[in-house]
Amino acid sequence: DTAVSQTPKYLVTQMGNDKSIKCEQNLGHDTMYWYKQDSKKFLKIMFSYNNKELIINETVPNRFSPKSPDKAHLNLHINSLELGDSAVYFCASSPSGGFEAFFGQGTRLTVV
Amino acid sequence: DQQVKQNSPSLSVQEGRISILNCDYTNSMFDYFLWYKKYPAEGPTFLISISSIKDKNEDGRFTVFLNKSAKHLSLHIVPSQPGDSAVYFCAASNSGYALNFGKGTSLLVTP
Q1: Distance between alpha carbon B107 and the CA centroid of its chain, in Å?
Q2: Do A40 and B44 touch (CB under 8 A)?
Q3: B32 to chain A, minimum CA–CA distance in Å?
Q4: Phi and psi at residue B96, in whole multiples of 5°?
Q5: E runs forming strands in chain B
Q6: B98 to A99: CB separation less than 8 angstroms, yes or no
Q7: Are the C-beta atoms of residues A78 and A85 closer than 8 Å to each other?
Q8: Which residues in chain A are closer than 8 Å to B100, comparing Cβ atoms?
Q9: I need a labelling partner for B47 at 20 to 30 A (CA). Which of A4, A38, B32, B40 fits?
Q10: Are B46 and B59 in contact (CB under 8 A)?
Q11: Which residues pair with A10 in a beta bridge?
């Protein structure tokens, strides 16, 4: 069983489109994250949710909106996609008070 | 503002030898440090961690050393195996809510 799963794994879309990436974890963790790995290979935190509540929102364009319907899911919606949004997006989860985050396999987003 | 730095983008080591991966950080508020291993087209996988109250943590072939005064940590892998070939990310946290990652070091273990 996959602990943290995100779909799709690959996403190719045109500029200006709106897309979503879904993430689910079956570890019973309270905290979920979205990280972005850009072309320079930096892994940077975008958002963090704890028990469906947003607790970290780094400097991310408001075209990016996370949605947490329940504590096992954290989806990422991106509006008006731009070329610079091309990156690999990783979902992760951790238990409350825990430092070790468990990552999904990543979604490679390519905007053309 | 990069608070965690891995200055060696790549490292090549012979099988059976020791691999030493280095990491420096600038934020003195970091109190927990982790190493992740990543294979291509996969997510990072947690490898080993260390709290700031310790200076060493060992798990099998993997040992992490922390030098708080120098704001430096290192990961030792001994003996290195070809299956250890991957990108290794150093990460640090001061809140438990998010990890600050380095750029990674690509380790190649040759037979």
Answers
A1: 11
A2: no
A3: 7
A4: 80, 0
A5: 4-5, 10-14, 19-25, 32-38, 45-51, 56-59, 62-67, 72-77, 86-93, 100-101, 105-110
A6: no
A7: yes
A8: 45
A9: A38
A10: no
A11: A108
The β-bridge relationship of strands B86-93 and B32-38 is antiparallel
pLDDT of amino acid B86? 97
Are the C-beta atoms of B94 and B33 separated by less than 8 Å?
no
Give the chain B residue nearest A50 (alpha carbons).
B97
Compute the residue count for chain B: 111
Q: Do A99 and B34 touch (CB under 8 A)?
A: yes
Query: Could A105 and B49 be called an inter-chain contact, meaning their C-beta atoms sit closer than 8 Å?
Result: no
- CA distances from residue A1 to A4, A35, A104, B62 in whole angstroms, order as listed: 9, 22, 12, 26
Q: Are the beta carbons of A50 and B43 separated by less than 8 Å?
A: no
* CB-based contact, A14 to chain B, within 8 Å: no
> Are B44 and A48 in contact (CB < 8 Å)?
no
Give the pLDDT of residue A49.
87
**Residue B21 one-letter amino acid:** L
Query: In Å, how far is B56's CA from the nearest CA of chain A?
Result: 17
User: What tens digit of pLDDT does each residue of A47-90 get?
Assistant: 888 887 887 777 789 999 999 999 899 999 999 999 999 999 99
